[in-house]
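Design request, tokens follow.
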């Protein structure tokens, strides 16, 4: 530091700049946050609780989470577990105003839900949709959410692993889950996971931690799953499922019988499996059990258990043809089935 005196005036000169310039990576992260944090919302939900003494119903806070704007129609995407059993849901936008939300559709098997709010269109800025198929381990991952109720927090990390699987609240496996070390704390659930360009690559859904705090292992539902599920929830309020129209023998029974694939217990008359000539378990005229066909592969993909079969059909559409190899007794056979939409 130097000091000059002229006519009684002191001038101080510092040998370093007052503000250091950001490096390109920091600039990129700041830009992503400033551009897309207004698309992230804070979600609060409440449930009804019965007071046994007064016989009144009370509205009590149940939890909070994050979500993000899907389109300019007011659709909001979040996790199913964020709004599970909620009686009332409030969505807070970047203007700090709250909007009551209605549930448009849910998919517990994918831990996804779509809400809708009536808000000014100028506030409904969506996030560009990426492609999780192109992700690579080591690339940058950015999570924006509301951890512990603190609005608009950003954490950064990398894509730590791909192809993980996790159990949804409904007990089904979610496949191709993204693992990241970007901190995902309570309240981040339902918020977006972005790449370095600000494209949506996943929906933050959970952490793996005995204490419940972020421990460097967070998970996100891949955006390709989101792109497939959300439009159906908006249009139909549910997922349109397709299948073969059959009931499988439970896996624990299959294991006891030492079968190498799912066994058909029942089939719907006139359904896809029935029309393809697959045989269900039945009894002969003496009352002895005749075991149903055991499915070995679908389109040459090995099917080991019931979950394998369900997972394979999940991405299919009604009318798709699949080649099925199966065992009838000790004889291997094959057939072709045309998938049908399953009724609730």
């Amino acid at each position: 530091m130097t000091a000059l005196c002229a006519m009684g005036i002191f001038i101080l000169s510092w040998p370093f700049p007052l503000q250091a310039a950001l490096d390109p990576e920091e600039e990129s992260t700041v830009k992503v946050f400033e551009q897309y944090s207004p698309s992230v919302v804070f979600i609060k939900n409440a449930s009804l609780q019965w007071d046994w003494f007064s016989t009144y119903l009370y509205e009590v806070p149940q939890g909070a989470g994050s979500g993000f704007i899907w389109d300019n129609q007011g659709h909001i995407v979040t996790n199913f577990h964020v709004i599970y059993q909620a009686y009332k849901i409030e969505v807070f936008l970047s203007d700090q105003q709250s909007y009551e939300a209605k549930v448009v559709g849910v998919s517990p098997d994918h831990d996804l839900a779509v809400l809708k709010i009536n808000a000014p269109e100028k506030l409904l800025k969506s996030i560009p949709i990426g492609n999780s198929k192109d992700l690579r381990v080591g690339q940058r991952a950015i999570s924006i959410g509301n951890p512990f109720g603190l609005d608009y927090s950003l954490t950064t990390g990398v894509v730590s692993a791909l192809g993980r699987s996790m159990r949804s609240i409904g007990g089904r496996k979610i496949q191709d889950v993204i693992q990241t070390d970007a901190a995902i704390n309570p309240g981040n659930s339902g918020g977006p996971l972005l790449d370095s360009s600000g494209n949506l690559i996943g929906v933050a859904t959970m952490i793996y931690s005995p204490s419940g705090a972020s421990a460097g292992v967070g998970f996100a539902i891949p955006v390709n799953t989101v792109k497939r599920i959300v439009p159906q929830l908006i249009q139909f309020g549910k997922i349109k499922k397709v299948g073969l129209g059959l009931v499988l023998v439970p896996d624990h029974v299959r294991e006891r019988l030492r079968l190498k694939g799912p066994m058909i217990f029942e089939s719907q008359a006139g359904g896809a499996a029935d029309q393809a000539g697959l045989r269900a378990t039945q009894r002969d005229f003496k009352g002895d059990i005749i075991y149903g066909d055991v499915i070995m592969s679908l389109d040459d993909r090995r099917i080991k258990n019931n979950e394998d079969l369900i997972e394979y059909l999940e991405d299919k559409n009604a009318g798709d043809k699949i080649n099925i190899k199966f065992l009838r007794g000790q004889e291997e056979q094959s057939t072709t089935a045309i998938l049908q939409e399953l009724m609730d």
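Comment from the thread starter after seeing the answer: thanks! The longest strand covers residues 153-167.
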